[in-house]
Specification:
Number of helices: 4
Shape: elongated
Structural class: mainly alpha
Radius of gyration: 19 Å
Helix content: over 70%
């Protein structure tokens, strides 16, 4: 019964898990910097559309933004593999492998 209470306590009302990663501060800072830059790129693209900039130029910027997002995903995936996955496997939690396969499939849809 106590395990069930712990499990329920670790889910939000939306049903998502509240597990947390533990990235070093330098990695979090790097990710935040990258995401802030991407946010600026998106605002720039919106401005290009408002100004009727040539489509090919907008597509070039979209491609650059997608590449930047992929870089963020790679950093997160590496940290996930080296941290979360290794930790859970060492605890005997093989279900993390199924979760990892789904995660990689999501990344490969792009």
């Amino acid at each position: 019964m106590e395990d069930k209470v712990k499990e329920d306590a670790c889910h939000t009302e939306e049903g998502t898990s509240c597990r947390k990663s533990h990235h070093p501060e330098r990695v979090k800072k790097d990710l935040t910097t990258r995401l802030n830059r991407i946010e600026g790129q998106i605002r720039g693209i919106k401005g290009m559309i408002d100004k009727d900039v040539y489509c090919d130029d907008i597509i070039t910027q979209l491609s650059a933004t997608q590449s930047a997002l992929n870089s963020v995903a790679k950093i997160l995936l590496e940290g996930h593999l080296k941290g979360c996955v290794v930790d859970r496997l060492s605890e005997g939690d093989d279900a993390v492998l199924d979760e990892l396969v789904v995660t990689i499939q999501k990344l490969m849809k792009k």
